[in-house]
Amino acid sequence: MYRQTYPDAPGMHTTGPDSHTRVTYRENPGFLSRVKNSFFGAFIGFLLFCGSFPLLFWNEGRAVQTAQSLDEGLRSVIHLSTVDVAFEHNNHKLVYLTGQLYTDKPLKDVDYAITVPAVKLKKHVEMYQWVEHEHTREYKEGDHIRRETKYTYANEWRSDLVNSGHFDREMGHQNPKSMPVKSGVIAADDVTIGNFHLSKGLIGKIQHFKPYPLTQGHLVPSDPRVKVFQGTFYHSADPVRPQVGDVRVEFSYAGLSGNSELGPADHVSIVARQAGNRLQPYQTEAGDTLELLYYGVLSPEKIFEAEHAANTMLTWVVRGGGWFMMFVALFLMTNILQTFVDWIPLVRELLSLGLFIVNLSVSLSLSLIVIALGWIRYRPLIGLTLLACAAVPWVLSRHKLRTRKEKDDKTDNILFNNLDEKAYYSK
């Protein structure tokens, strides 16, 4: 009855069997409070602004160094004619080889009676848990702000443990305190291609996982009650209608070794340093290390082409991040100007549009300048071209100001001449 009589009162409102809405009120921040928040935002913006410059400059140096290392590697790589013999004259040189993966021992998970001849065996565990979803809306009501937060609860399979103690309403939505089964990856200690042993770094690059096929009659020695449903282990009385706390386990493997019932061995192509009969990272004169592994039979040219493409992609992602960081910093630093005029809607909107254009232009120009400075050391022509592009907005703005000034001067001269003529005829 109370909620029906006072629907807007603060507190919790039940809106359904697994959802409720909590209503709170707070006062609108005053002018001094908004100014204080704007100054704090400007300080954060200043830190971001200062941090964007070294980020952009470092990224250009990294991109150039990586590109030079890849070019150096392609020029010096040696194509091995066989993987069965490690010739001494190739020691400490960058070599290219391709062949089938092999491990001397299969990987096993004793608890689930899984055995697979592969480089890696991954166990992925999920538990059926309560999950809280939060949706917030705010409304201005006079001198106060009404905040409505709707909490909805649903059951989901999650690989992470959801702490129900942090829910807004834990009663009826309790989750277990721990996962009964842990996820993990088992990796082979020794992986070879012919007579060559792969380094830990190369083994770490074997990530092409495939689901392990389970049969309906697969038995689990540790717990006979575990069921197999749709290729997955279920710790559940009914996999179709799971309950909170039920667990499901999926297995997958990467780097199939030798020919087995799972198929032929995986074929990989490698570029690395030969150290006896071991493959190790290769240190380039440009500064990077090369230790490359790709699935399938790829030529050295294709491998280095793929690495160049990945380097270009990473470079542009960091460039975009650095520019956006600078743009947000300028927005925070200039937001205080809008705070002083936010009580005049028209002026606020016009100022907001103007600041957006200015911040966008300044952030783009400064980003191009930093990028250009990073390239001038390595490739002056590209660096100077980028500097010229960065100067375009400034040149256009100065040209526009000069044109406007000349137009104003011409208008003033015409008015002055008209006044002189009127004064002459009046005499």
Essential attributes:
427 residues, alpha+beta, 21 strands, 41% helix
Walk me through this protein's architecture.
The protein is α+β, with helices and mostly antiparallel strands and 427 residues long. It is built from six helices and 21 strands. Strands 1, 2, 8, 9, 10, 13, 14, 15 and 16 form a nine-stranded antiparallel sheet that branches. Strands 3, 4, 5, 11, 12, 17, 18 and 21 form an eight-stranded mixed sheet that branches. Helix 2 (31-76) packs parallel to helix 5. The longest helix is centred in the last third of the chain and has 47 residues, at 380-426. It is flat and about 80 Å long. Mean pLDDT is 85; it is low at 1-7.
Question: Can you summarize this structure?
Answer:
The chain is of the alpha+beta class and 427 residues long. 41% of the residues lie in helices and 28% in strands.
Summarize the main sheet: 9 strands, antiparallel
Mean pLDDT: 85
Distance between the termini: 92 Å
Principal-axis shape equals: flat
Classification by helices and strands: alpha+beta
DSSP helix fraction: 40-55%
Number of helices: 6
Rg from alpha-carbon coordinates: 33 Å
β-sheet strand percentage: 25-35%
Report low-confidence residues grouped into runs of 5 or more.
Answer: 1-7
